[in-house]
Amino acid sequence: MKKRIDIPYGKETLAFEINEQNLVGVYSPKNIHGVSDVAAAIHRALATPIGTKPLRELARGAQKVVLVADDNTRLTPADKIIPILLDELNAAGIRDEQVTVIIALGTHRPMTQEEILAKYGPEVVRRVQVKNHNFRDPGLMVDLGTTPNGTHIRVNREAYEADFKIGIGSIVPHYIPGFAGGAKIVQPGISAEQTTAETHLLSTCEPRSFLGIRDNPVRIELNSIARAVKLNTIVNTVLNCHGEVVGVFYGDVVEAFNAGVELSREVYSVEMPEVADIVVASSYPCDIEFWQAHKALYPADLAVKANGVIVLATPCYEGVSVTHADILEITGETMQGLKDRVARKEVHDEVAASLAIGWAQVKERESVYMVSSGIADEAARRLGFTPFPTIQAALDAALERTGPAARIAVLTHAPDMLPVIGK
Questions:
Q1: In what order do the strands lie in the sheet with 386-387?
Q2: Comma-separated ranges of CATH 3.90.226.30 domains in the chain
Q3: Which of 64, 288, 311, 355 is the most buried (most CB within 10 A)?
Q4: Mean pLDDT, to the nearest integer, of 392-396?
């Protein structure tokens, strides 16, 4: 008997059918209810700091405050968090005109004014200045030397020179540092391109990603960089699959993050009885461009057998990458070939190279079939993927490759999922 399955695809849904005897399961982040009052949850977190003092006490006397907040590729409710932080800072004697929000773009494209208004809300835009971080302008950076491991620390000068700094983001499984959140708001959030290249390349030192591993070499570097920048504190949320707030954590950049990871693991871990021959993965909610959508590959990689097939469904409205448009020049190379070229300093965009290495790690373990309205077939092939017009067509081809008894799993929100097999 055929079973119809619908998965999110940007602002739409896509449907396809699977024989029930082939289906391992359809998996989503746990449907944990969001808090009933987000503002109250934020206030509770501020009243119970983790590993540090209350915000009003910490910030008192500061002349310049910078809030480092994630961008519109994340669902963090900055429009609800920042007004409360501004009120707390006001209570500490700090006026709105002493506060700036710097958008932690990492190496993403700048946000437009319309996007800024939608993400941070009219109250924030009215009360304080909101700025995009420009990772490619060396004149906006300050050099803070290196971490104990040798990573060069070059970060946004305005943020570094502020008397008080708060990081605002969300904690979710992430293929580079194990989990997003915490110190990641600084690196890559407000760092220079070289710093980001070095930490991203470090993430490729193992044959598979660090997804879901809290303590790893990349996280150590991120924490060192955030300490060097003197990020005073963080406000991190954990969200459910609907983008609703499940928990809020305020405090020390490491201790509050570690506490939030436990809840994030609870929300995003999905138990699967077996690895599948074929995994259908939606890139939702990371749909803007493939630079974001590729995050769906790593949970799918954990859920599929070696030599299996990943069917990736992603709209990629803005194509492969706005700020790394020439990445297609290197994505056809092998993992080792790319690593060798980076070692010989033959690749000018090492951030792009680090992602291409990660994609090669997946492609050399399993095949990737792509269904995307935003990426042309030629570009998909240059990425090393096989393009298909529909999920059904991709599934049919995958079944021809793996056999009619192949086991199939579906990940509806793959970038925000952490498959756990047989536990």
A1: 23-27, 408-411, 276-282, 304-313, 367-371, 386-387
A2: 2-29+273-421
A3: 311
A4: 98
Distance CA 297, CA 417 (A): 11
CATH 3.40.50.11440 in the chain, residue ranges: 38-267
Sorting pLDDT into bands at 50, 70 and 90, what band is 348?
A: confident
If DSSP codes are grouped into helix, strand and coil, which group holds residue 280? strand
173-174 and 178-179 beta bridge pairing: antiparallel
Q: What is the pLDDT of residue 61?
A: 95
For range 194-208, the mean pLDDT: 91
CATH of domain 38-267: 3.40.50.11440
Three-state secondary-structure class, residue 285? coil
Helix extents (H) in 248-307? 255-268, 290-293, 297-303
| Bridge partners (DSSP) listed for residue 140 | none
**What average pLDDT does this structure show over 293-307?**
96
Look at residue 24 and give its three-state secondary structure. strand
Q: Of 271, 208, 261, which Cα lies nearest the Cα of 420?
A: 271
**The pLDDT of residue 423:** 57
Contact (Cβ atoms closer than 8 angstroms) between residue 294 and residue 362: no
